[in-house]
Amino acid sequence: MRTSAAVLDLSNSPYAVVRPVPPGRVEVAEGFWHHRMRVMCTHGLHRQFEQCEVTGRLRNFERAAGRLDGEFEGRYYNDSDVYKWLEAASYALARTPSADLEARVSSVIEAIRAAQRPDGYINSYFSGPRASWRYRNPRDEHELYCMGHLIQAGVAHRRSTGSDRLFDIVVRAADHICATFGPEGRQEPDGHPGIEMALVELARETGSPAYLRQAVFFLDQRGADPPHLSGLHYHQDHAPVREQHDADGHSVRLTYLAAAMADAAMDTGEVELLQASIRLWESAYERRAYVTGGLGSRYQGEAFGADFELPNDRAYAETCAAVGGIFWNARLLAATGDARYADWLETALYNGALAGVSPDAGAYFYANPLAADPQPTPDDQGGVHSSGAQPTVGGHTRQPWYDTACCPPNIARLLLSLPGYAYGLSAGALWVHQYLPGRVEAVLPDGGSITLRIATCYPWDGDVDLVVEDAPQGPVELRLRIPSWAEGASLEVDGSCEALKPGTYAAIRRVFSTGTTVCLRLPMDVRLIASHPRVQANTGRVAIARGPLIYCIEAADHPESTVDALLLGPASDLQARDEPDLLGGLTTIRGTAGVAMQNRSDGLYSRFEGGRPRLTGSTPLTAIPYFAWANRTPGAMRVWIPYVDG
Q: Measured between alpha carbons, how far is 392 from 375 in angstroms, rounded to an integer?
């Protein structure tokens, strides 16, 4: 059995700078992520499978195969949810063999095999009476997008199990795509990127350059004159990809497209593609990203807004956009070795993405606002966004599934492939991107290997001890990421201690002996974050952070005050407190908040008499990690809190 299960196999990508260590060589021990991954394996995947059953997603393949009568159920892109579930389940099988899960995976693969057409095409919606509709509207009907997720599932299944049962299906589908689209065939790409990343990874798995060429062809078709799609920013079709500068349009589509650009650049060496992806990243993460790593500030079109347009209660910040941003950051990190991509990957992982799933992996968010109230606002009443989710009486609440259910299996495949994002390799060096307790066995590209055992309680504690269990006789370089928030970080090896620069990788090059311990100390002080002055929604407000975690306040912890009445100031005295019995174990932030007067008698507007709010007293304040909100009594939540000096 093969157990690499790598999302990115860059071992033969000639222009990659840092190649991921395969997950099969990474052990995640007890701790934060071990628990999350275990729960997803034991509960989340099974619940998602049941949802695929009850919503007809699996029956659709039986109908497409002619084994079942009746009408197609759900939305025309629902096949993609099954494929993402298959990818996540493949990673789970590589991690922990399960006869029950393996049987479910086998049954789904058999249904897909039966539904595939003789020419390799597969889509359960465009079958039977709708077979003649094939590719009638690639811009909106997502056939290539769905097959892209099928390809990624097939590659993951092969790398996880060594079986070609699903892989043979995806190769036939990819060959069909190459025969149908190209300079001598159909010209249009899919309106929703995804096929491009999949084809690049398939080229890496097979060694066939045809799939890489096809991926680059699809990238090249955007921004054509006349347009093949819409010519709109929404589809990232307003300009050729190499000429795009701003993160515009549908946020998930942009992250998938820009990730594919970086992917292709690492295999072709085309500098313009990489530079364009970096420009888009700078637009997204330097001017248009939430402090949580969330992307997409507009419900309309699930889209990016303008620079610094970051409303809190109206933040869309789709879970899939945070996941797509992690994929994008991982690829740019591999392409450049720049620590800023690892920093934002971490921010999105612990905050923007993780908020999308409950601790028991049974309920999910589609959108992830940074402020929420008990009741939906009037213009939301009865409204249905593209997620298919209607506001509930309790306001923004987690759901076990959605009509458009892209987010649950997307967060599942991310969490279960997480070990593949933790470590990297370059000539003579092992890079530590994320601090996970456990063990890594790294085979160095230029020969030899090094094995480390990592002991840490990160993200609750900043002490990280890396113990060398095995090392080559010659010198090896360890490159340890120093997060941008870690002011005062230090590193100690054999009694020597040095201060470190945040936002970089600290390099230690030496001949390591078995038993050598590298002690990294990352200060976990409570800190306050301010926004750029142009983010009007946060004027006069701060966010609470500790380590990689962004915090929020919830009404559940403040029954005597509305969260809008709470203010921070110099006397708030914010302190971390470990609370093992709260929501599975959290470190909260406790302190004192001022309480602003809420019941004024002088009308809606009155004469301005100075900038200080009228206070009625003070009250204890509790902040919890943003990822943990909305798992207790429904109520209001805020990330950004007013701050008053003096």
A: 8
Q: How far apart are CA 198 and CA 205, in angstroms?
A: 11
The answer to the question of residue 502 being in a domain is yes
CATH of residue 231's domain is 1.50.10.10
* Residue 65 covered by a domain: yes
Helices (H) and strands (E) in the chain, counts: 15, 22
Which residues participate in catalysis according to the annotation?
302, 406
**Domain range spanning residue 275?**
31-126+137-373+396-420
490-493, strands of its sheet edge to edge = 26-28, 438-443, 449-456, 463-470, 517-521, 490-493, 496-499
528 vs 291: CA distance, rounded Å: 12
Phi, psi of 488 (to 5 degrees): 85, 10
Residue pointed to by tokens 């959605």: 402
CB crowding 360-388: b at 16 or more within 10 Å, else e: ebbbbbbbbbbbbbeebeeebeeeebebe
Mean pLDDT, to the nearest integer, of 222-230? 95
What is d(CA 375, CA 141) in angstroms, rounded to the nearest whole number? Answer: 34
Same domain as 160, residue 217: yes
pLDDT band at 376 (very low <50, low <70, confident <90, very high): low
**Which of 523, 583, 581, 580 has the alpha carbon at shortest distance from 552?**
583
- Whether the pTM exceeds 0.85: the reply is yes
Identify the pLDDT of residue 1: 36
Residues 6 or more apart whose Cβ sits within 8 Å of residue 602: none
